[in-house]
C-alpha cells in the first residue's frame, strides 16, 4: 500500500506493490553528501517480480530514476520528480560458485570483495576501494587501483522501463570509461563476476593495502561524494584542479577537499546548489588555466529548488 503524505505534485494511480511505496520522501540523510531534496515517489521493491510488475504498470509518462546508497550521487535541492527506485536487502545477496561470484545490485562493493576473500577468489579486491553498490558500479563502470568492474563482469541482469528482463553479456553492457551503454532508466538487479583462484591471506593483504591508501589519501570520513570529475586522457583530474589553484576553494558550505582536490565536501551547511556551483567553478578555472574542460563523474539528478517568492 502507498503511505499517505503530501506529494510535491500529482501523479495518477500507481500499480499495487508488495514493497514500500511512499510519497515526498526526504533523501538527504541517506546520501553521502547529506544534501538534496525529496523523492516525489520512492519505491523499494520486495523482490524482482515486485519491481517488474510495478514497472510494467507504471504510466509511460512518469520518469524513473534509480539510485543506490548515494555514494557518488548529488540530488539537487528541488528533489527528484517522478519515481525513484532504491533496491534494498532483497537485492543484496552474494554467493560464489568456484571462481565466480553472483551479486545482487544492492550488495555493497566491499561485501563482494570480502566474499571473494573468504572464498579464495582473487581479482575482485579493487571493489573494496569503491564506496557504493554493485548496481552503481555497473552503471558507471566504477574502478579503482588499476581495475574496473567491466574487467570482471561476465553478465548482468536488468529490467527495462516496461519491466521486461534483459540478461546482458559484457559486450552488450557497452562499458567505457566511467560509463555503460545501458539506458539510464533501466534497473540493474544482479551481476555475475569472474575472479581467479587465490590465497585468502594474499587477498586480505591486498585489501588492507587498499584500505590504508584510501585512509591516507581521501576524505572518507567527511560528507563527500567520491571522485568528482573524470580523468581526462593522459591526465589526472586532481592534478589539473591543483594547477588551477582550486585546492581548498569554497562556496557556501561546500569545499574542494584540502586532502584530495578531486573530492568536494559538505563542511556542514552546504546545499546541493553550493556543491554543484562549486564544481562548475572548478571546471571553469581548470579550463582557463589548462585548456581542458573536466567532465563530471558524480551523477547529478533532480531539479533545482525554485526561488522563494514574496
Walkthrough of the structure:
By secondary structure, this protein is an alpha+beta fold. The chain is 25% helix and 26% strand. The strands form 6 sheets. It has a 5-stranded mixed sheet, with no helix packed on it. The protein starts with a strand and ends in a 9-residue tail after the last strand.
Number-wise, the strands total 20
Major sheet attributes: 5 strands, mixed
Nearest-angstrom radius of gyration?
A: 20 Å
* Strand content range: 25-35%
What structural class do you assign from the helix and strand content? alpha+beta
- H/E element sequence: EEEHEEEEEHEHEEEEHEEHEHEEEHE
Helix percentage range: 10-25%
Low-pLDDT stretches are 1-8
Overall morphology:
globular
Count of discrete alpha- or pi-helical segments spanning 4 or more residues? 7
- Across the major sheet, the strand order is 1-2-3-6-4
Query: What gap, in angstroms, lies between the N and C termini?
Result: 38 Å
Mean pLDDT: 94
Which key features would you list for this structure?
alpha+beta; 7 helices; 5-stranded mixed β-sheet; globular; 310 residues; 20 strands
